[in-house]
């Protein structure tokens, strides 16, 4: 198969972790007879520096014309520390999600048997935890208008907006996911306070009878934040709005032992994007120390969702499991004798070449 992949490495550790994912994709392609072509595009702070725009039109064209987008990370401290900056790297990521119509962000959360001791939670709590968080990605307070400042600058406002059809399309996907798993769907909202959350609840209640085999529960977001820590095994599929999903998935990721392990897939109307859930980790940029596993596992999701190549995806996961079991890990996981980012990538590619 021909795999026409757009590569948006972005900022911070983006380029170095993307390089490792490409090594892994190349190894898979070599063994399985696929041909991958990679076309690089600018995004984020790097794109602002070079073009003034965090998601240039050429990058959008490239994404539209590709079969999948492999994405690194976005964000730069020079913007974080300047709340007055007119253009921000994160606007590039949001523009990409919106223009590609990527309304669903799928974040599988599962623990790795060999890393249970790395979790901040007790091993018996996390062992076997396995759920999928589905985050709405193109609505809510991230995109609602009006947004801004009053004339005197002393009042600021963000607006949270959801339409019934936006809720229906993401929840349909969530019901379908639950149908293929343990058939339990948790809808996370704040319906005791927010009008948008009440529309979510009402909409899901109307949809539920069409999925009689799925058990639906509704949970307030504060409670969900607690239950992820207290008893993560209770979740199967969780669906929630944009900002709740952003926060809960960072929380959920660390129960697996490191933020550097969790991949994601953003899917919707146009080309799907595959990216680690972590940020650009600027302190580590260029040091060859960042964990490439989340990006490598995002490439696995790309094989599965964008190309329907499940065996290839499984092979990547097997290689990652083997690397973790054998202690081929970066310093976030083992400080005593850590491997470099590039060494982990080389090891994974070699494992695939040997075992595929
Ligand atoms: C994420 C990130 C982004 C988000 C930032 C970088 C804008 O935190 O993908 O989770 O908030 O969506
Ligand atoms: Mg986030």
Structure description:
With 356 residues, the protein is α/β, with parallel strands linked by helices. It has two domains: 1-102 and 265-356, Isopropylmalate Dehydrogenase (3-Layer(aba) Sandwich); 120-256, Isopropylmalate Dehydrogenase, CATH 3.40.718. The chain is 42% helix and 18% strand. It contains 13 helices and twelve strands. It has helices at residues 14-32, 45-51, 57-64, 77-80, 89-99, 123-126, 164-180, 195-207, 221-230, 242-254, 293-306, 310-325, 341-355; strands at 2-10, 35-40, 68-73, 104-110, 130-136, 148-149, 156-157, 184-189, 215-220, 237-240, 263-267, 273-276. The strands form two sheets. It has a ten-stranded mixed β-sheet with strand order 2-1-3-12-11-4-5-10-8-9, with helices on both faces. A two-stranded antiparallel sheet has the order 6-7. Helix 1 (14-32) packs across helix 11, helix 1 (14-32) runs parallel beside helix 13 (341-355) and helix 12 (310-325) packs across helix 13. The longest helix is centred in the N-terminal third of the chain and has 19 residues, at 14-32. It is globular. The chain starts with a strand and ends with a helix. The site of 3-isopropylmalic acid has 7 residues, from helix 5.
Short description:
The protein is of the alpha/beta class and 356 residues long. The chain is built from 13 helices and twelve strands. The chain has two domains: 1-102 and 265-356, Isopropylmalate Dehydrogenase; 120-256, Isopropylmalate Dehydrogenase.
